[in-house]
C-alpha cells in the first residue's frame, strides 16, 4: 500500500504542472541586447587607462608617478 502511494506521489509530482514559483517570480529576464550601452562606458574607460599606463613611458605613467610622489611627501604611510 505504501509503495502504491509513493509511486502515485512521484508520478503526480513528475507529470503535474507545478510552475507556480516561476509564474509568480517578479524578476524578469532581460536579454543582453536590451542592456544600455552607457553601462559599459565607465569600465571601458578604466581598462583603457590601465592598459595605456602600463605600456611605455607616456604622459599617464608620468602623471601616476608624480601623483605618487606628491602623496608620499604629505602622507608617508600612504
From TrEMBL:
Keyword check for Membrane: yes
Q: Supply the alphabetized keyword list.
A: Membrane, Transmembrane, Transmembrane helix
What residue ranges are annotated as transmembrane?
Answer: 37-56
| Name assigned to this protein | DUF5683 domain-containing protein
Q: Which organism is it from?
A: Pedobacter alpinus
Amino acid at each position: 500500500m505504501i509503495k502504491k502511494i509513493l509511486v502515485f506521489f512521484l508520478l503526480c509530482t513528475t507529470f503535474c504542472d507545478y510552475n507556480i514559483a516561476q509564474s509568480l517570480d517578479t524578476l524578469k529576464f532581460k536579454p543582453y541586447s536590451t542592456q544600455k550601452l552607457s553601462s559599459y562606458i565607465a569600465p571601458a574607460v578604466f581598462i583603457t587607462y590601465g592598459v595605456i599606463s602600463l605600456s611605455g613611458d607616456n604622459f599617464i605613467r608620468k602623471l601616476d608617478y608624480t601623483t605618487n610622489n606628491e602623496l608620499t611627501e604629505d602622507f608617508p604611510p600612504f
